[in-house]
Structure formats: structure tokens, C-alpha cells
Amino acid sequence: MPPPRRAALGLLPLLLLLLLPPAPEAANKPTPCQRCRGLVDKFNQGMVDTAKKNFGGGNTAWEEKTLSKYEFSEIRLLEILEGLCESSDFECNQMLEAQEEHLEAWWLQLKNEYPDLFEWFCVKTLKVCCLPGTYGPDCLECQGGSQRPCSGNGHCNGDGSRQGDGSCRCHAGYQGPLCAECMDGYFSSLRNETHSFCTACDESCKTCSGPTNRDCSECEVGWVLEEDACVECDSSCVGCTGEGPGNCKECIPGYSRELGQCADVDECSLAEKACVRKNENCYNTPGSYVCVCPDGFEEAEDACVPPAEAEVTEEESPTQPPAHEDL
Ligand SMILES: *[C@@H]1O[C@H](CO)[C@@H](O)[C@H](O)[C@H]1NC(C)=O
Q: In what residue span(s) does the EGF-like domain sit (predicted)?
């Protein structure tokens, strides 16, 4: 006997956890640069915290003297280092243990010369990161320069890390190696030596040189050029030569040309009956029709049956000619 469905459902989350491949976790694992940046962020936060902690609020000469002594002291460094890693964070503690001497050297001797800990520690010393706008093992400039990589319209592959190739992945609307060109459906709204902005065309244009439907170079599918503007084909058209139901090239299914316009066909009033079951009502709809049994009638396979006759019909049916399945 199969186990009750409810019990199986209860186990489902657990099963999913066990069956899920470990791949997503591996993908989320921080890169060496991200880990270094995390450590530096915590270190900077530690500097802020310890600065507050030992400031009494007064400004006596004594306090100032003690404070400036503490400011560069090894005691303060130890306090900062203590708060750097959660005790359960193995990777962080491992990195800290390996790099403690570097941090101490910076704190005691190099802080003035290299005030930016991230740059000194992660970029220059550990060489796991690059400065923003640069990429790869040698921290080369991204496409378009390190100031505004990819013209400010895209992401530089490997930006800020020791990885990648510095090529641009452009934002929507932009293309080209420097993301300075506009894609089809966009026009250049501003362009000078350093900046390029692309703006979306009107929905009626496939390509354009400006924002309105009069600026189309080519109309979008389903739109046609009329008096210098792209206009939408009527919903009853398949292709058109202008606006409205009178300018269709062809009519959509369920519509036919009447007095030069595509108009809904009333299937219910055609000579050939649209609804063929006995007693059935026909209702016209735009582009189609529905067949419905009248109120109180019941649906049967080949007729709408009045309630009073329902039982009679059922008894009668075996005496009717055999249904086609029996042939
Ligand atoms: C280019 O355009 C941008 C955005 O309007 C402007 O900030 C910048 O100063 C311009 N640069 C030049 C060289 O004209």
C-alpha cells in the first residue's frame, strides 16, 4: 500500500535539502578579493567603533593627550582585530591569522603613507584586488578607461578584481566595444567626447532618430507610415495601409470585409447553422460565437435536453440507432 500522501509531503523539504546539488553554494563562495574587502570593511568599522568608545566627550588637555596616544596604539589595533571575524567563520580567521603581521605593519608604520587600507592591503600587498576601473592579473585599465569604463553604459568584465578580460557588457539600449553605440529601437539623445546616452524610440518605431512616432526611420511590425508618422493597424487587420478598420490589407479570422471595412462576422445569422445541437442557442462574439443550452436545459452530447424530458430521453436512447462507436 502506498504511504499517505500527507506524510510524503511533510518529508519533501528535507528531501529537497538532501538532494540539492552543492553547486549554488560553491558559486556564492566569496572570491579572495571579496574576502579581503570584507576584512578591510570590518577593520574600518573597527576603527570607527574604537574611536567612539574611547572618547569621553570632553576636550581637556589630558583627554586629548590620552586619546592621541591611544589613537595609534597597539591596544587599539588588538581591539580592532578582535572584532574582525566571527569565531565560527573559519575562512576569515584563517585569513586573519595569515595576514596579521601585514595589518600590524600598516597600523604601526605605513598608515600615514598609505591611508587607504583597501588599496595598500588588497591591491598592493596581497594582490587579490585591483582598483575600480581596472582588471586582471596586472590591473590593466578597463575598455574605455578606468575613470568611466564602458562609457558608463556597461559593466567591465573583472572590474576591481584580478580576473576577467576588461571587455564591456553593455546595459540595455547600448552596444559596441565601448557601449557608446545605440541598439536598434534606441536613438542617441546626447553624445560628446566622454558621454553617450541612448533613449528608447516610440513604440511605433523599429528604428528612429528621436522620441516621437514622427521620428521613426522604420515602423515597427503592425504599424504603418501615414503622413510622416507611424500609426497602428486596427485590431481587425492583418497588415494595413493606414489607421482604422477601413485600411486593412486582410481581415483577422472571424472578420470579413463589409462596405470596405473589416467587420465582425455574425456566425449566428449565417445560412449554415453554427450551433447544430437540438434546442441550442447561438451567441455572436467579436471574431467568434458560442453555443449554449437555454436556461434549465441540460447538456447532452448531441442535444440540449429539457429537464422534464431528461429521463425519458435516457430511457429512449438504447432504442435509438446505434452510436458510431458501435459500428
Ligand atoms: C558631456 O556631457 C556630459 C553630460 O551632459 C557632461 O557632464 C560633460 O561635461 C560633457 N563633456 C564634454 C567634454 O562636453
A: 138-180, 264-305
Nearest CA to ligand 1 atom 14: 192
Angstrom CA distances, 106 to 37, 112, 129, 232, stand at: 16, 9, 18, 68
Architecture of domain 274-311: Ribbon (2.10)
For residue 194, report the distance from its CA to the centre of ligand 1, in Å: 7
The dihedral over CA atoms of 241, 246, 249, 252, expressed in degrees to the nearest 10, equals: 130
**Where are the domain boundaries for CATH 2.10.25 in the chain?**
274-311
Q: Is 319 in the pocket of ligand 1 (CB under 6 A)?
A: no
The answer to whether 306 and 296 are in contact (CB under 8 A) is yes
Give the three-class secondary structure for 290: strand
H/E element, 14: helix 5-19
> CA-to-CA distance for 233 and 238, rounded, in angstroms?
8
136 alpha carbon – ligand 1 mean position (Å):
29
Whole-number Å distance between alpha carbons of 275 and 293 = 10
pLDDT in tens, 92-107: 888 889 999 999 999 9
pLDDT 10s digits, 209-265: 999 999 999 999 989 998 899 999 999 999 898 889 999 999 999 999 999 999 999
Q: 191 C-alpha vs ligand 1 centroid, how far in Å?
A: 8
Asked whether 194 lines ligand 1 (CB < 6 A), one says: yes
Nearest CA, atom 4, ligand 1: 195
Closest ligand 1 atom to 192 CA: 1
